[in-house]
Amino acid sequence: MAYSIAKNEMIDYPPDELKNFQVIAYEWIDNLNFTLAPDECLENPEPYVQLVKELFLENEWQGDGDIRLMWIPPFCLPCDETQWRYTKGVVIWHTKQISDGTSWLLIPKEIADMKLPFC
After folding, report:
1. Alpha carbon distance 1, 75 (integer Å)
2. Hey, is 102 helix, strand or coil?
3. Which pLDDT band holds residue 3 (cuts at 50, 70, 90)?
4. Fewer CB within 10 A of the end CB, N or C, for the chain?
5. How many domains does the chain have?
6. In what order do the strands lie in the sheet with 21-26?
7. How far is the C-alpha of 6 from the C-alpha of 68, rounded, in Å?
8. How does pLDDT run across 67-106, given as a tens digit for each residue?
9. How many CB atoms lie within 10 A of CB 108?
10. Containing domain of residue 65, as a range?
C-alpha cells in the first residue's frame, strides 16, 4: 500500500486553535463524497465540533447540516512558501446548510486571506 498520512495525524492542533480560523460562506459545494466525519480523525472530536458549531452560529449559520472535514492537498494552495508550510495539506471544517445549500467553511486565516491565482 502506498504511503498516506494517518487520519489521526490530519489535525495536529488543540480545539482552541480553531478560534484563529476564519468562517466563510460559500455556494455550490455539491460533491460531499470526499468529506470525513471528525470522529474518523480525532479520538475526542466533541470539543472541536462544539467550537466549530459556535463559530458557524456566530456567523449566521442556521444550525442544520453535519459538521465534516475536507482535506485540501498542498498542490491546491498558492505556489509560494505556503506550500512548504502546509506540506500535509490543510483540513477545512465544513457544513452544508440543509435549508438553502449554503456551505460554511472554517479555514486557517492564513489560507483564507490568500490571493489567487493558484498554480
Report:
1. 22
2. coil
3. confident
4. N
5. 1
6. 21-26, 103-108, 90-96, 68-72
7. 17
8. 999 999 988 887 777 767 888 889 999 999 998 999 999 9
9. 19
10. 18-112
Is residue 119 domain-resident? no
Question: If you average pLDDT over every residue of the chain, what do you get?
Answer: 90
Q: Find where cell 480525532 sits.
A: 42
If residue 84 lies in a helix (H) or strand (E), which one and from where to where? helix 81-85
Give a yes or no: residue 54 inside a domain: yes
- Gap between the terminal Cα atoms of the chain: 29
100 falls within a domain: yes
Is 116 a residue whose pLDDT tops 70?
A: no
* Higher per-residue pLDDT: 2 or 74: 74
The Cβ-side half-sphere exposure at 42, using a 13 Å CA radius, reads 19
What is this structure's pTM? 0.89
